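Narrative summary of target 7.
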Amino acid sequence: MQQPREISPPLVLASTSPFRRALLEKLGIAFSTRTPGIDESPNVEEDPQRLVMRLSLQKARAVGNKFPRALVIGSDQVACIDDAIMGKPGNRQGAIAQLKAASGRRVDFYTGLSLLNTATGREQTLCEPFSVYFRPLQQDQIERYLDAEQPYDCAGSFKSEGLGIVLFERLQGDDPNALIGLPLIRLVEMLRNEGIQIP
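Modeled conformation, tokenized:
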């Protein structure tokens, strides 16, 4: 396998998510990861799109403070039914409740993406939407799925890159990577704006 290409300024992912890391590795460029350690609580009456854009930028800035010359990626995601935010379920009962609520319905995912150039102070931020249309799910289907994947740290209680795909009728959006947590199509555009060509 080819070694990741070093770029200048260096790239830093403000996340320790294994899912985001795996997605970023697809681009074939070297990067490091850091934990942003920010408060992710929503502000009063903050809509999902503004929330994920604010948090993605805060994550990039928090990590960027430690790197005077770097490109720092921040990302945040929420899942919503009728604009009501579904958090990470945390346990089996929470996941059962989320999947029952999603059964036969559309769940909208909003992924905030920020790229901060700490040398110039330039910030690029956007929100990438993606919708999942769930099949009607029976209790036994939900429980068998949870037995197989235990997606308790995933917004919406599924892993679309794994067996979770069987829960869906269809997907709608521009970038399937956004569903996993890092919209690569938009990120490549942001990196190009900073003079980084991929491939």
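Residues 36 and 59 are 5 Å apart (CA to CA).
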